Amino acid sequence: MAVGLNYAAHSGELNLKHDDTPTVFTLWPNSLAAHGGTTTWSRAQSESVDYEAELGVIIGRPALNVSEEDALDHVFGYTVVNDISARNIQYSEAQWSRCKSLDGFTPVGPYVVTADEIPDPQDLHIWTTVDGETLQDASTGQMIRSVAKLIAHLSQGITLLPGTLISTGSPGGSGYSRTPQRLLADGSVVTVGIDGVGALTTHCATVA
After folding, report:
1. How far is CA 204 from CA 15, 45, 84, 91, 199, in A?
2. What are the tens digits of pLDDT across the range 101-112?
3. Would you state the pLDDT for residue 8?
4. 189-194 vs 198-207, strand pairing mode
5. Which of 30, 47, 69, 163 would you label with 99, given CA atoms 20 to 30 Å apart?
6. How many CA atoms lie within 13 A of 183 on its CB side?
7. Separate counts of helices (H) and strands (E) for the chain
8. Hey, where are the domains in the chain?
9. CA distance 50 to 64
């Protein structure tokens, strides 16, 4: 499960409104990729491919209709997610699952840090580099909705099963919104990281 527009800076730079309730969509299993791997896409399908550093939350025990106060008790651990996005598809369709679920578009890892080692998921430094240049540099404290609030919301009427991965949104600094744009391309090396959790590197390759 994924949450969009959970940092004001990111929703603002994309000219998208963050509503009173979270923007929720799913990421498909084919999009999962490992640390150090290569994500390949067709230039004919998209030349507007962007990075998004996100804190991933892994559910450890079933969560159904949980309160915000109890929500973190259901977390097994935390990881790093790069929510790679084909912006041209995102802006042409009403839902976001496809634009973010192309093969290899959801790198995750390289570690899962158990919840007991992260006393406050809202106090983590989150960042992105592309080819060694820092392009995102923020704190999870800037989330509009905290991890606990997201779990409580998502669990209303839906059982979050152990192993469920929740990607909690990206801070500002996307490549699409820069002038000039700083999009991913053939040969790009993108690393997204969260201090105390890990740094996740993806190599990019394109085909015609």
Report:
1. 27, 15, 11, 22, 16
2. 999 999 999 999
3. 86
4. antiparallel
5. 163
6. 17
7. 3, 15
8. 2-207
9. 33
Cβ contacts of 65 within 8 Å, gap of 6 or more: 155, 156, 157
Whether the predicted pLDDT of 20 surpasses 90: no
What's the rounded Cα separation, in Å, for the pair 166 and 163? Answer: 10
- Domain 2-207, CATH class in plain words: alpha beta
HEC sequence for 29-66: HHHEECCCCEEEEECCCCCCEECCEEEEEEECCCECCC
Q: 34 pLDDT exceeds 80?
A: yes
pTM score, whole prediction: 0.94
For the ranges 3-17, 43-57, 65-79, 166-180, the lowest mean pLDDT is seen at 3-17
pLDDT at residue 13 tops 90: no
Strands (E), the chain: 2-4, 23-25, 32-33, 38-42, 49-50, 53-59, 75-82, 85-86, 106-107, 113-114, 125-130, 133-139, 165-167, 189-194, 198-207
Rounded Cα distance, 6 and 115, in Å: 21
Q: Which two tokens stand for residue 31?
A: 């999009």
Pull the structure tokens for residue 121: 């998921």
Percentage of residues in the chain with pLDDT exceeding 70?
A: 95
